[in-house]
Design goal:
Order of helices and strands: HHHHEEHHEHEHEHEHEEHEEHHEHHHEE
Mean pLDDT: 85
Number of helices: 16
Number of domains: 2
Strand content: 15-25%
Radius of gyration: 25 Å
Largest sheet: 9 strands, mixed
Strand order of the largest sheet: 5-4-6-7-1-8-13-12-11
Structural class: alpha+beta
CATH topology of the largest domain: Peroxisomal Thiolase, Chain A, domain 1
Length: 492
């Protein structure tokens, strides 16, 4: 959780990553495209053979048994190659975002009051200043009675984790009608809180899942872990037919609470809030008709080989035993490099050919022919109708909006998610998508781009295509009861 989101409150600009790209990342994108599209070349060959055979008479076939045998062998070979190389389609049946009970709602003023007896005046004033310009409302959620040092305990953290996880899972099961025992894969990601037994084991125990269920528990991967979980589920579903995969993304607020005086470590106290999401994926063809989305691409970028990137967000322990996340001055620069690499790799997979040609021509002219021309900036708005950017903080949303040249409407889901629910870590991209659904903006064929980043340093993207129009009148999610109140003007 706290591993990457402080980025949003560091007052330094992201580098303009669209102005500087490396050819190797463009090549990597085309490599992904070609590797996953080989089977597309097989279909025309099979069609051509079928058309040719349709022009032959029975007498022609009898007199050309050798040709018929050759064609038959080729058809069998190509058909086998096609079905063996074709990846299984992965569908997002539905998802749910946890909305805490009103008793956990807290205003900024009350939060400052609760912290008054914990921190000295300087630290308290700093946190108050961060909170005032955070972009958060007075209706975010914190289990405040469990969130003061005297109440820190393993049992209270476990209680909070179970509360949000079970709440999200129950919601998605109710929405889909899928029985819990039909789920063959369970993946949980929580960065800071990883008890023993694991949170995934807690789910198995609570719902009494069968002995053959495959479980994974991802820890320490920051706010990008939700999309890493999607990638892991996708890979597992490729090898296991007719299976449901359940992904739970959450964070336990109190597990990352810092009580020291290091200002860079105090930021997460002010922006992280209670939340969780549960996503149900399926590779069953029969689920396509009722699923909301199909997974199109996942692109993961890891900069951990670079020592600067690896250490820019680092959990450490102070001499007095207080733990917190250390943020280096290189944080925003590292984040920008990771973002640049990710979108440069993603571009060839999603941009229309017209944009790719213009971009590639500009790239060759600048990097190969050494021409001093203005770089062509691809228009990602031609590739996506919806942008679900991790609501890590106001500053990073501002910079991403500027770099990607996004309108206020396209940024609205991320800004409203930050305002209404705060930074809910890896689950925030799902609150973003739920906002667009509640607004009735998701139409059949629309493409949604989810992007998150985390310590290590990582940047991950997932691309979804809507399989049907989402009817806001019947859709029920965390935003439904109050969606008419949004968007709001956010004071800074």
């Amino acid at each position: 959780m706290a591993e990457n989101s402080p980025i949003g409150e560091i007052h330094s600009n992201l580098p303009n990553f669209l102005l500087s790209v490396r050819l190797k990342y463009v090549k990597l994108g085309y490599h992904y495209l070609i590797s996953n599209a080989i089977y597309l070349f097989i279909v025309p060959i099979l069609v051509a053979i079928g058309l040719h055979l349709s022009t032959l008479t029975l007498e022609d076939l009898i007199t050309n048994l050798a040709m018929l045998k050759s064609y038959s062998t080729l058809v069998v070979f190509l058909a086998t190659l096609y079905f063996m190389s074709r990846p299984r389609n992965v569908y997002l049946v539905d998802f749910a975002c946890y909305k805490p009970h009103e008793r956990y709602m807290i205003s900024k003023e009350r939060l400052v009051e609760k912290l008054a007896g914990i921190f000295d005046e300087d630290s308290l004033n700093f946190q108050k200043k961060i909170l005032e310009r955070s972009g958060l409302s007075d209706k975010t959620y914190i289990p405040v009675d469990k969130w003061i040092p005297s109440n820190f305990s393993l049992s209270s953290n476990q209680h909070q984790a179970k509360l949000v996880i079970v709440g999200a899972i129950d919601d998605v099961l109710a929405k889909t009608g899928v029985k819990i025992r039909e789920i063959g894969i369970v993946i949980v990601n929580s960065s800071m809180f990883n008890p023993t037994p694991s949170l995934s084991a807690m789910i198995v125990n609570h719902y009494k899942l069968g002995v053959n269920v495959i479980t994974y528990n991802l820890g320490g991967m920051g706010c990008s872990a939700g999309l890493i979980s999607v990638d892991l589920a996708n890979r597992l579903l490729q090898g296991q037919a007719n299976t449901y995969a359940l992904i739970v993304s959450t964070e336990v607020v109190s597990a990352a609470f810092y009580t020291g005086k290091d200002k860079s470590k105090l930021i997460p106290n002010m922006i992280f809030r209670m939340g969780a999401s549960a996503i149900l994926l399926s590779n069953r063809f029969s689920d396509r008709w009722r699923s909301k989305y199909q997974l199109m691409h996942v692109v993961r970028t890891h900069k951990g080989a670079d020592d600067r990137a690896f250490g820019c967000v680092y959990q450490d322990e102070e001499e007095d035993g207080k733990k917190g996340m250390s943020l280096s001055k290189d944080l925003m620069a590292v984040a920008g490099e990771a973002l640049k690499t990710n979108i440069t790799t993603l571009g060839p997979l999603v941009l229309p050919m017209s944009e790719q040609l213009l971009f590639f021509a500009s790239l060759v002219a600048r990097n190969v022919l050494k021409r001093k021309i203005k770089p062509y900036i691809p228009d990602f708005k031609m590739a996506f109708e919806h942008f679900c950017i991790h609501a890590g903080g106001r500053a990073v949303l501002d910079e991403l909006q500027k770099n990607l040249d996004l309108s206020e409407e396209l940024m609205e889901p991320s800004r409203m998610t930050l305002y209404r629910f705060g930074n809910t870590s890896s689950s925030s991209v799902w609150y973003n998508l739920a906002y667009s659904e509640a607004k009735g903006r998701i139409k059949k064929g629309d493409r949604a781009w989810q992007i998150g980043f985390g310590s290590g340093f990582k940047c991950n993207s997932a691309v979804w295509r809507a399989l049907r129009t989402i009817d806001a009148a019947i859709e029920k999610n965390a935003w439904t009861d109050e969606i008419e109140d949004f968007p709001v003007q956010i004071p800074y």
